[in-house]
Amino acid sequence: MDLVGAVKIFLLCCSLLCLCAATASQGKENSSEYRYPFIRRASSFSSTSSPSASQSGSHKTYDYIIVGGGTAGCPLAATLSQNFSVLLLERGGAPFDNVNVSYLKNFHISLADTSPTSASQVFISTDGVFNSRARVLGGGTCINAGFYTRASTRYVAKAGWDAKLVNESYPWIERQIVHQPKLAPWQKALRDGLLEVGISPFNGFTFDHLYGTKVGGTIFDESGKRHTAADLLAEANPEKLSVLVYARVQRIMFDTTAKRPRAVGVIFKDENGNQHQAFLAKRRGSEIILSCGAIGSPQMLMLSGIGPKAELKKLNISVVLNNRFVGKGMSDNPMNTVFVPTNRPVEQSLIQTVGITKKGVYIEASSGFGQSSDSIQYSHGMMSAEIGQLSTISPRQRTAQAIREYAESKQYLPHEAFMGGFILEKIASPLSKGHLYLINTNVDDNPSITFNYFSHPYDLERCVEGIRMVEKIVRTQHFINYTKCNEKNFDKLLNMSVKANINLVPKHTNDTKSVEQFCKDTVITIWHYHGGCHVGKVVNHRYKVLGVDRLRVIDGSTFRESPGTNPQATVMMMGRYMGLKILRERLGAAAGK
């Protein structure tokens, strides 16, 4: 068995960058897929669906229209529906009966499925890094690694949030969907290795962001079943909430007859391609809220006419408001991984343990492999791992025959080849910034996204420090005792990772003496991208879009840095928090209790 060849396949699957799989393995939907009666397909929508609207000939209207039923949108909708009518529009389907979304063992398959109705939508940044956007009710909580940890107190203060309300909002999430993990052996080995190299103290199991080593929460329960932001809709008022899945919002509608543009509704298409309009109520306080995520929200603003005037005019988009900051300040926390082989199968685990350093370097781990041998051997098509393996070959030489021959050479690796795990190193608050631009006016297409990984020298300096830390951990007695790794030379481990070609960045194999080059060559993502609608530039401190009325953005696109070691806890908290803030602004301090 060629170990490097095995590592290539393992990395491309287990480092979350195998981006296509058999449509046959896609989680199927059935009649029970929606769980709650207020969740329906978009094609069932009627703007005159209420008796009063039908009798008067007027449109049914809503106090709030939320675009994006993701990590922030679900808790936000559940909260606002306690007192107001809410229409939640989600472009993807429901997660409840999708087995690829619902179970830890199928984690890689959910990311790998790139069929049109899959839970994830692949994109490749101009940097050459594979990435994914959620396309499912529950958003990123349906396709991520499940780790749950809060933002630091410093982050909360810097965001200008009410600490008391924040500390009311996190537990609302945790009571419903968060669990204490059963620590896997690989995670225990990492814990002990972290402590041995001095990343201390050990803070035990905690949701809090504390320097040292800790075990965080997880949205996977003891049976390995995932619980997502969509589960938070159980707290909604079913009489006031309507959720439409497969509702692809095309743009926001504005009334531009007054001094300031005013949002009045949205245009969306259902799963059959038919177009609909949904309108806000004329009551004071009614709003459209974008919760489409760090890619979707700036994209939707621009498609609706809010953004850099010159860019909008290039695509013949009518300018509602010129704002040059929309889509700017995009950032993604760069991650690099080191594969550590073992001489025996390893229990599958996703992130459970984390080392948090004061310099903003985080160390985490994953191990094992959950897919079946069928999914490994399947021919994955044009976005497959096999294509990634050819990334150092000139595109003109990536012929169908070359791709087929390469895929066939990897088909018959035995499952036992996939033994080992990863130590992950990522940096907090990267100073490297990028941007997002529209390519066309089709909302279903990804915009052009650039993150400029490691363009700031301090980010690269911290990556080097992190990789050196990983080297120390691999060489600790605790880790050696567990892995029984015969590969003593750390440079060889690094070179295996470089040769795996896990992105489309040109490689420098056998140059592992330069850790800086290793960082650049093997950079990947763990989906913590953010920005594009920054506070003070695109929205104000209440997340209202500057220069227009009745429009907010509530999601990670407003963040200047990603909260905690993993953002999902804080994005869900933000949805609950802002829902309560809005209720209390309108109804008084007792609202939402």
Structural commentary:
The chain is an alpha/beta fold. It has 18 helices and 25 strands. The chain has a 6-stranded parallel β-sheet with strand order 1-11-4-3-15-25. α3 (73-80) runs parallel beside α18 (568-587), α7 (163-177) packs across α18 (568-587) and α8 (185-196) packs antiparallel against α15. The chain starts with a helix and ends in a 6-residue tail after the last helix.
Question: Helices and strands in order, then pairings?
Answer:
Elements: H1 3-14, E1 39-41, H2 51-56, E2 61-62, E3 64-67, H3 73-80, E4 86-90, H4 99-102, H5 107-112, E5 120-124, E6 130-134, E7 147-148, H6 153-159, H7 163-177, H8 185-196, E8 202-205, E9 212-215, E10 217-218, E11 241-245, E12 248-255, E13 262-269, E14 275-280, E15 287-290, H9 293-303, E16 306-307, H10 309-314, E17 321-322, E18 328-330, E19 335-341, E20 353-356, E21 361-367, H11 373-377, H12 385-389, H13 400-410, E22 420-427, E23 434-437, E24 448-450, H14 457-474, H15 477-483, H16 490-499, H17 515-521, E25 551-553, H18 568-587
Parallel strand pairs: 1-11, 2-14, 3-4, 3-15, 4-11, 8-9, 15-25, 16-17
Antiparallel strand pairs: 5-6, 7-10, 9-20, 12-13, 13-14, 18-23, 19-22, 20-21, 21-22, 23-24
Helix pairs in contact: 3-18, 7-18, 8-15, 14-17
The strand count comes to 25
Arrangement of strands in the largest sheet: 1-11-4-3-15-25
* Share of β-strand residues: 15-25%
Q: Globular, elongated, flat, extended or rod-shaped: what is the shape?
A: globular
Major sheet attributes: 6 strands, parallel
Provide mean pLDDT, rounded.
85
User: Helix coverage percent of residues?
Assistant: 25-40%
